[in-house]
Amino acid sequence: MASPNPSILPYGMAALAEAARVVAAGGLVAVPTETVYGLAANATDGAAVARIYAAKGRPSFNPLIVHVPDLATAETLAGFDEEAHALATAFWPGPLTLVRPLRAGGPLSALVTAGLDTVALRVPRHRAMQSLLVHCGVPLAAPSANASGGISPTTAEHVAASLGAAALILDDGATPAGLESTIVAGRTILRPGPVTAAMLESVLGSVSRGAEHPAVITAPGQLASHYAPAKPLRLNAVGADADEWLIGYGPVGGDETLSATGDPLEAAANLFAALHRADAAASMRIAVAPIPMDGIGEAINDRLRRAAHP
Ligand code: AMP
Ligand code: MG
After folding, report:
1. Which amino acids does the record list as binding L-threonine (predicted)?
2. d(CA 120, CA 100)
3. What's the 134 CA to ligand 1 centre distance in angstroms?
4. In this predicted structure, which of 9-18, 54-63, 245-254 has the lowest mean pLDDT?
5. Which of 31, 49, 61, 64 to mutate to test the pocket of ligand 1 (most atoms within 8 A of CB)?
6. What one-character-per-residue DSSP string does 3-28 give?
7. pLDDT tier at 2 (50, 70, 90 boundaries)?
8. What percent of the chain has pLDDT over 90?
9. DSSP label at 251?
């Protein structure tokens, strides 16, 4: 049935063309997958990825899963060893996410991976997400399409109720109200899901279970899920002290700026690349200008606080 809400379009060629236009313009599209509705944006466009966090009202930056149409595309973004290749061949398209080492100099925004040198990749099976990927021709970052803390959406109406007009919604009915995808790094299950340990063992021989958000790296193959600079970092700096690399914002200039105009979306898009550059600079310490707490500023401040007090 046609919806009176113009931001909900029934799945079809017209909706896919409009969705591809929205993605190319840096906007957000909610799209069903075989798990739940995802909130998708161009993973190579930092400002578009920042809009995902802003729309969800997430108080922190978690690395996001990057969706691609096939293994060949995944291999252009990250390295696949023999075991990862075997898993992809066995379970893609499907609800399996593989954490793989990023290819250097690749196109993904650092905000997608939260500055890590690994990326979580998935080839989804659902026809709507598959067609959207093909129409867009870019990898799509997509967490669940609900406001932070809300329940995962399994219908277009859930998405509209949770996110309002923040996204164009591609309506292809209710998702098979599935579990979130299984996440695997090497032979370690970071998050259990529809692809079970027994299914993974049938390909790998043996697997181990790891924490989804390990506080510290306790064993090889267990990945810390956040990048933090190695140097000491000072918050709310309005000027640089001796031997500090100053990351500015708005009226506070610096060695570089997150956003000269004080645009929090631009600042979020630049954050991880700026931290990497500060880490690589000659100065021994890092300082960052004050960032207002409104909107996505909360997530920026959360990340900076953790970088300052690891
Ligand atoms: P969601 O998109 O909400 O299903 O959550 C994505 C999950 O993937 C989160 O638990 C992330 O911590 C995890 N994840 C994404 N990228 C990575 C990565 N590079 N290394 C480890 N975990 C990751
Ligand atoms: Mg979620």
Report:
1. 35, 67, 122, 142, 181
2. 6
3. 23
4. 54-63
5. 64
6. -S-TTEEESSHHHHHHHHHHHHTT--
7. very low
8. 78
9. T
Domains of the chain: 8-209 (3.90.870.10), 233-308 (3.40.50.11030)
Residue 64's φ and ψ, nearest 5 degrees, are -105, 155
Exposed, middle or buried: residue 284 (CB in 10 Å: 0-12, 13-18, 19+)?
exposed
Give me the pLDDT at residue 310, please.
67
User: Of all protein residues, whose CA lies closest to atom 3 belonging to ligand 1?
Assistant: 143
pLDDT of residue 211: 63
* Ligand 1 binding pocket mutation candidate from 60, 225, 226, 303 (most atoms within 8 A of CB): 225
Query: Which ligand has the shortest distance to the CA of 150?
Result: 2
* DSSP-derived pairing of the beta strands 244-248 and 285-288: parallel
| pTM for the whole structure | 0.89
CB distance 123 to ligand 1 below 6 Å: no
Q: Is 19 in the pocket of ligand 1 (CB under 6 A)?
A: no
DSSP H or E run through 82: helix 82-91
Q: Provide the β-strand partners of residue 42.
A: 140
Query: Is the CB of residue 78 below 6 angstroms from any atom belonging to ligand 1?
Result: no
Closest to 275 (Cα-Cα) out of 61, 115, 117: 115
Residue with the smallest CA separation from ligand 1 atom 20 is 225
Note the pLDDT tens digit of each residue in 43-67.
Answer: 999 999 999 999 999 888 889 999 9
- What confidence tens digit (pLDDT) does each residue in 105-135 have? 999 999 999 999 999 999 999 999 999 999 9
Contact 87, 184 (CB under 8 A): yes
- DSSP code of 193? -
